[in-house]
Design goal:
Methionine synthase, binds CO-5-methoxybenzimidazolylcobamide, alpha/beta, globular
């Protein structure tokens, strides 16, 4: 198989042996972020389709996710960093309660960190109380929530209601991302209920553009 195709296959098959050598070969040809976006994410997309249609079982999805994480970790030092842009602002980032998906959230962390933002990454399955505490403790400018399950879209709504109830909505603009969300759900339905700013990020780069806009 050609290199790109082989890398994509490694994600789909959860095959780690030889991964780093292939990534290094790809790095000689293309920037790290392009490898993630065009090749590795394409592999994860196939995994999602296979799993969704019952052709792939959960343990294999987990293996694919692990290989994806190793690949991103290997590529991360090669990603462009905007030097001297530190201290642009702080975001508290979390995968919401009940949800373990964190590959997308961690990509958001990398992109924002590399572009001068301080990211307080709380991890997965975070209750709203932990998110609020961290935001207050770190003087966050923005709260970012990620979640991939349909259930998580409801939790995000509840979390916004909790921020309203604590009178924190005006203080914290919120960025939401994850596969089960739609722009309409966030920018119409959730926008209606939240007393502050709530925005949808389709991918990590839109997350970055939103941070720049919200903090400016
Ligand atoms: Co799960 N899973 N999974 N899974 N999994 C999905 C989400 C699913 C769509 C698969 C499917 O059925 N086709 C489905 C959800 C269906 C639904 O809710 N209707 C599903 C399911 C059902 C489940 C379980 C319930 C399965 C089970 O146990 N029976 C279970 C849930 C456990 C739980 O959360 N309580 C489960 C478990 C797992 C694994 C642990 C095996 C693994 C996760 C490993 C990990 O993350 N550490 C896993 C995986 C890998 C997937 C799929 C295949 C791939 C997700 C992924 O990493 N994509 C996924 C299929 C899919 O999404 N279509 C699926 C790559 C990643 C980069 O994309 O996270 O969307 P994503 O991030 C994007 C954007 O969304 C955006 O930026 C990123 C790209 O730049 N973004 C943000 C995300 N967050 C953002 C935040 C921002 C800004 C942008 O600002 C705050």
């Amino acid at each position: 198989l050609p290199l790109e195709e082989r890398l994509k296959r490694r994600i789909i098959d959860g095959e780690r042996v030889g991964l780093e050598a292939d990534l290094d070969a790809a790095l000689a040809e293309r920037p790290a972020l392009e490898i993630v976006n065009d090749t590795l994410l394409a592999g994860m997309k196939v995994v999602g389709e296979l799993f969704g249609s019952g052709q792939m079982q959960l343990p294999f999805v987990l293996q694919s996710a692990e290989v994806m994480k190793s690949a991103v970790a290997h590529l991360e030092p090669h990603m462009d960093k905007v030097e001297g842009a530190e201290g642009k602002g702080t975001i508290v980032l979390a995968t919401v309660r009940g949800d373990v998906h964190d590959i997308g959230k961690n990509l958001v962390d990398i992109i924002l960190s590399n572009n001068g933002y301080t990211v307080v990454n709380l991890g997965i399955k975070q209750p709203v109380s932990a998110i609020v505490e961290a935001a207050e403790q770190h003087g966050a400018d923005v709260i970012g929530m990620s979640g991939l399950l349909v259930k998580s879209t409801v939790i995000m709504k509840e979390n916004l209601e909790e921020l309203n109830a604590r009178n924190l909505a005006a203080k914290y603009p919120v960025i939401l991302g994850g596969a089960a969300l739609t722009r309409a759900y966030v920018e119409q339905d959730l926008h209606e209920i939240y007393d502050g700013e709530v925005r949808y990020a389709r991918d990590a780069f839109e997350g970055l553009r939103l941070m720049d806009a919200l903090i400016a």
